[in-house]
Design goal:
Layout (H helix, E strand, L loop, with lengths): L1 E6 L8 H10 L4 E4 L26 H10 L5 E4 L2 E2 L5 H14 L4 E6 L4 H6 L7 H17 L3 E4 L4 E5 L13 E4 L5 H8 L3 E2 L6 H10 L7 E5 L3 H10 L3 E5 L5 H19 L1
Parallel strand pairs: 1-2, 1-11, 2-3, 3-5, 4-5, 5-8, 8-9, 10-11
Antiparallel strand pairs: 6-7
Helix pairs in contact: 1-2, 2-3, 3-5, 7-8, 8-9
């Protein structure tokens, strides 16, 4: 089972490469960064009261590349990437470039968005977001796979495009379907490379049912507390990777949090 951590890096925190070095030196397998291209200014809910740092995050792909090039073995991942907010042809090229330059150390947790105003600012009807993300995922895979890629969908369409480099990883950059909404498991089976639920009430039971379904897809459990009993529960349920959130953004706090995670995991696996 892989052990990962999630960090929020902004222009006011430790840099992505500095965090990545600390995480790799601590012996962990994966570092995740989140994504918000912007935050709408809202005076009323929903959206008001969102964390201040969401508007200050580094661009996700820049952060992933910076972290990957500062490390030797650490996998870098999104947690999440708002794939519907990105142009799929350009995103496919950027991710392939990062994967090749890092020696195949990139994967993604793909989200669909939760802030309607943010989606609309990107020209997306919130009612269609699942279909948009699905087409972006499928189109990007086709670009990674084919020397001449063609894709025709409702939201993405192109004929005979060539795009290099290709990702280092055979089959392209893995994309885990993120979320706990109804139907998440079905969407993961249909067009994801795995499922990445949040650690909420009932999630271990859903993971157990998902892995028992015989799809053979990996499960990334995100947002676990540093509680050995909870970690053991998720491991027993079949999670292949568990990810803890680093609440601190300062060096001393991150180092202390990494030590807490390491002690928690050691209490389970020895």
């Amino acid at each position: 089972m892989e052990i990962g951590v999630y960090a929020s890096c902004t222009d006011e925190t430790l840099r992505p490469d500095e965090v990545a070095v600390l995480v790799e030196q601590a012996g962990f397998d994966v570092l995740q960064f989140g994504e918000h291209t912007h935050m709408p200014v809202l005076d009323t809910a929903p959206g008001s009261g969102m964390p201040r740092d969401w508007a200050r995050l580094y661009d996700l792909l820049v952060a992933l590349n910076t972290a990957a090039l500062a490390t030797a073995r650490l996998r870098v991942s999104s947690g999440i990437i708002q794939l519907g907010h990105r142009a799929p042809i350009a995103t496919a090229k950027a991710l392939a470039s990062i994967d090749l330059l890092s020696g195949g150390r990139v994967d993604l947790v793909v989200g669909h968005g939760a802030i309607p105003e943010q989606m609309r600012n990107h020209g997306i009807d919130p009612e269609t977001r699942y279909d948009v993300v699905r087409e972006h995922m499928l189109a990007m895979r086709e670009i990674w796979r084919a020397d001449e890629a063609t894709f025709h969908g409702k939201f993405v369409a192109f004929d005979r495009v060539q795009s290099w480099p290709k990702p280092e990883q055979p089959g392209g950059v893995p994309m885990f379907f993120g979320g706990n909404s109804p139907g998440s498991e079905d969407r993961a089976r249909a067009y994801g490379d795995g499922w990445a639920p949040l650690a909420l009430d009932g999630t271990p039971e859903r993971i157990r049912a998902f892995t028992a379904g015989g799809a053979g897809q990996p499960v990334v459990a995100v947002g676990l507390p540093t509680d050995p009993a909870v970690v053991e529960e998720y491991a027993d349920a079949g999670a292949d990777r568990i990810v803890f959130r680093l609440a601190s953004t300062e060096r001393d706090g991150i180092e202390a949090a990494l030590e807490e995670v390491r002690a928690c995991v050691a209490a389970v696996v020895g």
